[in-house]
UniProtKB/TrEMBL annotation:
UniProt cross-references to InterPro entries, sorted A to Z: ECM_Regulatory_Proteins, FN3_dom, FN3_sf, Ig-like_fold
Coiled-coil regions listed in the entry: none
CDD domains: FN3
SMART domains named among the record's database cross-references: FN3
Protein name: Fibronectin type-III domain-containing protein
Organism: Neobodo designis
Positions of the Fibronectin type-III domain: 1-85, 396-494
Gene3D superfamilies: Immunoglobulins
Keyword Repeat listed: yes
Lineage, top ranks: Eukaryota, Discoba, Euglenozoa, Kinetoplastea, Metakinetoplastina
Length: 627
């Protein structure tokens, strides 16, 4: 870098003696002229500037002999350029060591200079010295020799160990040639050693984590001696097994990267995914732009809370159970990892209410709910440091609808009541049922209790053609549920005969059975009984017909109509009808008595009042003309 060794030799041998040699070297700011004896064949030109072209000329003076004047031969000249100066670069700083690289020319190994083979193109080694505040730490930091050869394709970075932590240092390098020549020291480069990042991960939650770090420096350090300028923080997500199955070469995904000034000491990494593994890489950058080594910390976010498991559902309560959603073969202890309390939320429409439970409780019963309402239930975990996790997926739960009683069949004196719910999607703990049948027109009431396995019952001994209200409620969870909506049901009316035709000696009647209509009994299966009481008129006394002792007859019929013939004129006929109940396999009760009369054969005074009289007369046979 700062010298050139010039050598020469005599190439003319004509018998004359060399008297001396003359050498001149000229550069922009350098001029030298020297004379050498005939025995000297080389010269070292020192104090030259680096990367400078030097024009060197050498000539020799020969002795002419016989007292003649000496003769100077022509100049032999050559231009040579001094080598580029060596420079050093610090590439990495660790707590007690540094990495550097030596630059010597346009590339680490390509040194520009003379192309003459007589010149040393490559140094034998480099000497590296480190000084701290002007003092060479030779006893702790001796010079390091780094061999270099032309075959070396790449200059490996040199490493200097045993450097004091958090110190301010200067490093310089010089080259030593094969001839033992020492090059100039490079310009000293200042560097600061750095402690590794004193970083810790705390307050790990499902979607965020708190990162804290310290400077790792003594308190008496001034800002000018501080090695830390900023902290570089990178967060990477490690691929899980599912992603590796899709792509075996899947790498880490960078999810966050931040640079913090010297005054910041903590940062919350957010928007993470629950239950995933991450790498936290951090390193310091000093005031000279050097970086410490990466410090890598691995952590895993908390597993999310799984959807609630609906254990039991009633009319006014929902019992649920929950835990964290763990992968297979995970320890059970992770189900309640880092939980200070659980927050259970129950929502309906746009409104919601929540309750906080201790970490030891993973099951609860939501009470005082409305029956037959769709509720949404979800849970989230709250960590000991106050971080709220994600809400679990909402599970829609419908409380039990009120029981719906049904009367599928009914007769004149009985009804069959059945009950069920609109839907039954969840397990319940109904213990028993309470059924009530109330008469609308009288204080009559039937109250029955049934076990949970019974869902229908037949009630007998009811009044025909009477309206009843049927209600039912269920007993579960140590309390009675709401009453069902009352169901109105009317028992069947008994058969009532209606007059179809009549004459002086006959009465034709017809009737309908409401029971047969409700139960859709085929006409061929219909059975009736008609109770007949006849009373002929013997005399007329004050307009009132005297009645002789009755004659009672029961007829079995299979059609809802009958003609009673051979009756006396203006006689009374009292009828009662009943039908056969196939459900009870017995006859229904007799219907109300209905009286019919044949037409009279003579004028009959049927009623006499104070100002009027009522008479009846027979029909005139329609022989010649119409009546």
């Amino acid at each position: 870098e700062d010298f050139v060794v010039v050598g020469w030799r005599r190439h003319i041998f004509d018998g004359r003696r060399v008297v001396r040699y003359e050498l001149t070297a000229n550069a922009s700011d350098y001029h030298v002229q020297r004379f050498f004896d005939s025995g000297e064949t080389s010269c070292r030109l020192a104090g030259l500037p680096p990367e400078t072209a030097i024009a060197v000329q050498v000539r020799m003076q020969l002795d002419a002999g016989s007292g003649s004047e000496s003769e100077w031969l022509p100049w032999e000249s050559q231009t040579v350029t001094t080598l580029q100066a060596v420079s050093v670069e610090v590439t990495a700083v660790r707590p007690n060591s540094l990495n550097g690289i030596i630059h010597w020319g346009s590339s680490p190994l390509l040194r520009e200079g003379p192309t003459t083979t007589a010149c040393a193109l490559f140094p034998k080694h480099f000497s590296v010295h480190i000084e701290q505040r002007g003092r060479v730490l030779s006893h702790e930091l001796p010079a390091f020799d780094i061999p270099v050869s032309p075959e070396t394709a790449e200059l490996c970075p040199f490493v200097v160990d045993d450097v004091d932590t958090n110190g301010t240092f200067f490093v310089k390098v010089r080259a030593v040639s094969d001839f033992g020549d020492n090059g100039k020291w490079s310009v000293p480069v200042k560097f600061l050693t750095l402690e590794p990042v004193d970083v810790e991960v705390s307050n790990v939650a499902e979607t965020e984590v708190l990162v804290r770090w310290g400077r790792g420096e003594d308190d008496d350090k001034t800002m000018t001696d501080s090695a830390i300028e900023e902290l570089v923080l990178v967060v990477e997500q490690i691929p899980d097994q599912r992603e590796l199955d899709l792509d075996a070469n899947a790498g880490n995904l960078r999810v966050d990267a931040q640079v913090f000034g010297n005054e910041i000491r903590k940062y919350t990494v957010k928007a993470l995914q629950p239950g995933r593994r991450y790498l936290l890489r951090s390193r310091y950058r000093n005031t000279l732009g050097h970086h410490s080594e990466w410090k890598v910390i691995g952590f895993r976010t908390l597993y999310p809370v799984a959807p609630v498991d609906v254990q039991l559902v009633g009319h006014n309560f929902i019992q649920v159970k929950w835990a964290r959603e763990l992968p297979p073969d995970s320890p059970v202890a992770l189900a309640a990892e880092s939980v200070a309390e659980w927050e259970v939320r129950c929502s309906v429409g746009g409104a919601h209410t929540s309750v906080c439970l201790p970490a030891s409780e993973t099951e609860t019963k939501l009470m005082n709910l409305l029956h037959g309402v769709d509720y949404g239930v979800d849970v989230r975990a709250i960590t000991p440091w106050g971080n709220c996790g994600q809400w679990s997926p909402v599970v829609a739960v419908t409380t039990l609808h009120r029981l719906v009683p049904r009367v599928p069949h009914s007769g004149e004196s009985w009804m069959q009541v059945a009950w069920d719910r609109k839907e039954k999607r969840y397990e319940d703990n109904i213990e028993r049922y309470h059924l009530q049948v109330n008469c609308v027109t009288s204080p009559f009431r039937v109250a029955k209790y049934f076990p949970a396995t019974t869902t229908q019952y037949s009630i007998e001994n009811l009044k025909p053609d009477t309206t009843y209200l049927v209600m039912i409620q269920a007993f579960s969870d140590d309390r009675w549920g709401p009453w069902s909506e009352p169901v109105t049901i009317r028992t069947c009316a008994p058969c009532i005969p209606l007059l179809a035709r009549r004459g002086e000696d006959f009465v034709q009647v017809r009737w309908d059975s409401e029971y047969y209509k409700r139960c859709a009994v085929e006409p061929s299966m219909q059975r009736y009984q008609v109770k007949v009481r006849k009373a002929p008129i013997d005399a007329v006394d004050g307009g009132q017909a005297s009645v002789a002792p009755t004659e009672e007859t029961v007829l079995d019929l299979d059609s809802p109509a009958h003609r009673f013939s051979h009756l006396a004129a203006f006689s009374r006929l009292v009828l009662q009808i009943r039908c056969f109940d196939y459900t009870l396999q017995s006859w229904c009760g007799w219907g109300a008595e209905t009286e019919f009369r044949t037409l009279p054969a003579v004028i009959v005074l049927t009623h006499v009042g104070e100002t009027h009289a009522e008479i009846s007369w027979p029909r005139v046979p329609r022989l010649l003309s119409a009546v």
